[in-house]
Design a protein that fits this description.
The chain is an alpha/beta fold. The protein has helices spanning 13-18, 23-27, 64-77, 97-104, 121-127, 143-154, 198-201, 205-223, 225-233, 239-251; strands at 2-6, 32-36, 50-51, 61-62, 85-94, 108-112, 130-133, 190-191, 194-195. One of its GO terms (cellular component) is cytosol.
Length: 252
């Protein structure tokens, strides 16, 4: 799959693409990332990419022209590929695991990283197919959301993680019925006066799996109760799950 990223700061991506386990996906081109700077498509001696907003107000707005010319060059390089254009914006749909799973199985996209007060709405109306958001907060630009999407997609590619089943134990994964993950422990068995739960040391696989299931249920019920309701509505909770949740509710 291929992601073309339109950004005024391509240098921000270099360490991200070269570090950590996900670099395998980028180095192998399983996730092929191409960086494009709209300043290279700006006109005039100053290569201007922004200007003051009509109607007044603070900040600057990115010009539609350089972005459109940059996009046209990407389209030409992709050889008539109908890749969707994605803008990271507070008005976008919140990115979640289901969305990441869809992107990870697709052919890629063209990611637009806005800056300053935003992008001229005429470019958005003419060219943007989808807007995505990481949550209800504002960042200085779209580069961090773009990296978040690329990282989430990369780790789902075959062979990227050391253990092929690692991502199946992630929070929100359908393999865990959409629940949050359970706590994890490693050596030593005692640290700071706290011991590893006895169930994890028992060697009894069924007991370990039940402990992990109950911790997932407990963690989710405390932090994201709406995910419990979603799992219940989807028929993903069995009698043992419901019995545990009833005991848990009595303690809360």
């Amino acid at each position: 799959m291929r992601f073309d990223v339109i950004t005024l700061f391509p240098e921000l991506f270099a360490p991200f693409l070269e570090a950590g386990v996900t670099r395998r996906a980028f180095e192998s081109r399983q996730v092929d990332v191409r960086l494009w700077n709209p300043r290279d498509f700006a006109e005039g001696n100053y290569r201007r990419v922004d200007d003051r907003p009509f109607g007044g107000g603070p900040g600057m707005v990115m010009l539609a022209g350089p972005l459109a010319r940059c996009l046209a060059a990407i389209r030409e390089a992709r050889v008539a590929d109908a890749a969707p254009v994605v803008l990271f914006s507070p008005t976008g749909r919140r990115l979640d695991h289901a969305g990441v799973a869809q992107w990870s199985a697709g052919a890629g996209a063209i990611l637009v990283c806005g800056r300053y007060e935003g992008i001229d709405q005429r470019f958005i109306d003419a060219h943007v197919d989808m807007q995505l958001s990481l949550g209800d907060f504002v960042l200085s630009g779209g580069e961090i959301p773009a990296m978040a999407l690329l990282d989430a997609v990369a780790r789902l590619q075959p062979g990227v993680l050391n253990d092929a089943g690692s991502h199946e134990a992630d929070s929100f994964n359908p393999a865990l019925d959409g629940l949050l993950d359970c706590p994890h422990y490693t050596r030593p068995e005692e640290w700071g006066g706290r011991r590893v739960p006895a169930e994890l040391l028992s060697g009894h696989h069924a007991e370990i799996e039940r402990w992990r299931r109950e911790r997932r249920l407990e963690t989710t019920a405390r932090a994201r109760p709406e995910l419990i309701e979603a799992a219940r509505a989807a028929g993903r909770l069995d009698r043992a799950d419901e019995a545990f949740l009833s005991r848990l509710a009595a303690r809360l």
